[in-house]
Amino acid sequence: MIVHGTLVSPFTRKVHVFCREKGIPFDLARALFLEEYSDTRALEAFAPALVERVIMPRHLDGPTDEERIARTAAQVVPGVFDWLDARAEPKGLVAGRFTIADCAIGAQLQSWELAGEPVDGARWPRLRAYSDAVLARPSFLETAAAFEAEGA
User: Fold this and answer.
1) What pLDDT sits at residue 19?
2) Number of folded domains in the chain?
3) Mean of the pLDDT values across residues 50-61?
4) In terms of C-beta density within 10 A (0-12 exposed, 13-18 middle, 19 or more buried), how is residue 30 classed?
5) Taking CA atoms, which of 20, 44, 67, 83 is between 20 and 30 Å from 53?
6) pLDDT band of 4, cuts 50, 70, 90
7) Are 101 and 129 in contact (CB under 8 A)?
8) Residue 22, Cβ neighbours under 10 Å: how many?
9) Quick check: is 40 in a domain?
């Protein structure tokens, strides 16, 4: 089990203590951390493109703010992609298997792709391979098809 952080940090220590108290395998703790990362930092990176390219024109009859997408793509996305690329494994982000972390991160990467922004495989090859593998899973393909059928 790997918990990223130093035990000097009270945040890292609280994860260690909680997992030990509850008998939770550290792999689960890592998966839940990545799920939370998806709902915070990854969402901040990927949501603007989906909002501007899908939600605004299809549901709110509003204009697309390409400057917002470009700004986020230049200032936020590279850091998130760098971080994810360093951890990406095609079989899964945690212990080489598919977990809630992959559902969560995969959903964010799917948002990025649905907005017309694929991961640059030349700059982030591990993340591109991971994204391709996750988004090729039947569950993600079916969800993408439902998204399109719904006109989302």
Assistant:
1) 79
2) 1
3) 92
4) buried
5) 83
6) low
7) no
8) 10
9) yes
